[in-house]
Specification:
- With about 160 residues, the protein is an alpha/beta fold.
- It is about 30% helix and about 20% strand.
- It contains six helices and five strands, in the order αββααβαβααβ.
- It has a five-stranded mixed sheet, with helices on both faces.
- Helix 4 packs parallel to helix 6.
- The protein is globular, with a radius of gyration of 15 Å.
- The model has no long low-confidence stretch (mean pLDDT about 90).
């Protein structure tokens, strides 16, 4: 039996975590690793203790903010980073696996937290018909290694 690569294992987990999302618009999962160990996980959705969008607003999702984005959602990357920091786990030098390329706001956080590597599955820009992924461009400009996942997802329960 061939042993799977860590990149495959962690991306498969990120895809499966995305299934936990309560977001009506998009499901995103993230896995934060360091030295081949998982240090945190996350998926997009509202802060704990607030409304679950798919339960409170099942037809339209949560209200929009002034820029047209979800007014409640915390991005998967943010959830993974926040949980690690809340539990006093250093994320410096970590690798982040995420099912959707980071937005610019998440990219700033990723850079500020000194995460060294980001591997993403799907391009937000491609999904939205934009010319480039601002978050990816930002991270690359400031020396963070960013790679689009190109492996094989063998054990994914459901692709999102």
């Amino acid at each position: 039996m061939k042993r799977p690569a860590f990149d495959d294992i962690y991306m498969e987990l990120a895809v499966n975590l995305a299934r936990r999302s309560h977001c009506i618009k998009r499901h995103v999962g993230a896995v934060l690793t360091k030295d081949t160990r998982i240090i945190s996980i996350g998926y997009n959705g509202p802060p704990s203790g607030t409304h679950n969008c798919d339960e409170e607003w099942p037809d339209i999702g949560c209200p929009r903010d002034s820029k047209g984005g979800c007014s409640l959602a915390i991005h998967a990357e943010q959830n993974a980073i926040l949980y690690a920091v809340k539990n006093k786990t250093s994320v410096e030098g970590a690798t982040l696996y995420v099912t959707l390329s980071p937005c610019l706001a998440c990219a700033r956080i990723i850079y500020s937290m000194k995460i060294e590597r980001v591997i993403y599955l799907n391009s937000y820009a491609e999904h939205k018909g934009l010319s480039s992924d601002e978050g990816v461009d930002f991270l690359k400009k400031f020396g963070v290694e960013v790679v689009r996942y190109g492996g094989q997802l063998q054990n994914v329960t459901h692709m999102i």
